[in-house]
Amino acid sequence: MPEPEPKTCASCGRRIEWRKKWARDWENVRYCSEECRRRKVTAVDQHLERTVLDLLEQRRGGATICPSEAARAVAGDDADWHDLMEPARRAARRLVAAGEVEITQGGSVVDPSTAKGPIRIRLTP
After folding, report:
1. Which one is the CATH code of 43-123: 3.30.420.10, 1.25.40.10, 1.10.10.10, 1.20.120.910?
2. pTM here?
3. C-alpha closest to that of 36 among 88, 90, 99
4. Higher confidence at residue 18 or residue 70?
5. What whole-number distance in Å separates Cα of residue 7 and Cα of residue 20?
6. Distance of alpha carbon 57 from alpha carbon 51, whole angstroms
7. Which of 1, 71, 92, 98 is the most core-located residue (most Cβ within 10 A)?
């Protein structure tokens, strides 16, 4: 019997590969780790997703944004936007899984589960 198709973590948006330890409960696996299971998706995470989409819709076709733009917009003047960088990247990965955006590096689409370093986000054509 072939291994089931990978899933996407509901919290961080990374790919979850099938593991033998999950064989009996694969249909119910939603998170890639205990950390993601504890974190889940917060109101701030949802706000970041909406902000990413809003910023992209304000740009001309094919334009990209940096996750920092969404982090700055959500943080406003009162908070340190740096704390929202990883949540903004997670939001982008969840939006990739939903088919709404693509993550690029150097102008090429990359796998959000393995991308390291600076990324850009654009609407899916």
Report:
1. 1.10.10.10
2. 0.90
3. 90
4. 70
5. 14
6. 10
7. 92
